[in-house]
Design a protein that fits this description.
Blueprint lengths: L8 H18 L3 H13 L2 H7 L2 H13 L4 H19 L5 H33 L4 H34 L14
Helix pairs in contact: 1-2, 1-3, 4-5, 4-6, 5-6, 6-7
Length: about 180
């Protein structure tokens, strides 16, 4: 598993401290808001990145919607996406590989949810007519999500190919041919 995607204990503790300050600030404590602002500025980059992880929040929202509010399914979707991101990133990933792995895992959640919603639309159409324009729109949304998912996978493959073909040392050789 990638150490870059796993959180060390001290990072988790720092995030917990920030979350506590955030809750106090949300409850109207202006001093906590100032302290939170200062603490965020002084935080390590990995702490800030974790706190600003919109992809994780996004996965929870999509998992909540697609799970039918079933807690087990929701937790399993989010955990599967987390593990997928770890596996895709691989050992010792570059920051770009981490971003792309997270993107791929998040888009996987969206593609799966869109597939389920589209299937539900077809099923609903058997019981109660569904407007063709609605089905077409759902298909376009699903197609767009799938296209973005495949583009992220392709981009990661290109990045890895470029990294593999990049020599560590570049030698320039000049040959002078005299008459």
């Amino acid at each position: 598993m990638s150490a870059q995607l796993e959180l060390p204990e001290d990072t988790r503790a720092q995030i917990q401290k920030l979350q506590t300050l955030s809750e106090e600030a949300e409850n109207g404590n202006n001093e906590a808001r100032r302290e939170l602002r200062r603490a965020v500025r002084e935080s390590a980059p990995e702490v800030i990145a974790q706190c600003a992880d919109i992809a994780r929040t996004y996965r929870w929202i999509v998992a909540d919607t697609s799970s039918g509010r079933d807690s087990l399914v929701q937790e399993a979707i989010v955990e599967r996406a987390r593990r997928m991101a770890l596996e895709i990133a691989g050992e010792n990933p570059t920051p770009l590989e981490v971003l792309l792995a997270e993107r791929i895992a998040s888009l996987w959640v969206l593609v799966e949810a869109q597939e389920a919603l589209l299937s539900a639309t077809y099923r609903r159409g058997q019981e109660k007519p569904v407007r063709p324009t609605y089905v077409i729109q759902m298909c376009k949304i699903q197609e767009s999500a799938n296209r973005r998912y495949l583009a992220a996978i392709k981009t990661l493959a290109q990045v890895r190919k470029l990294q593999a073909n990049t020599p560590g040392i570049q030698l320039n050789t000049q040959i002078n041919l005299g008459r």
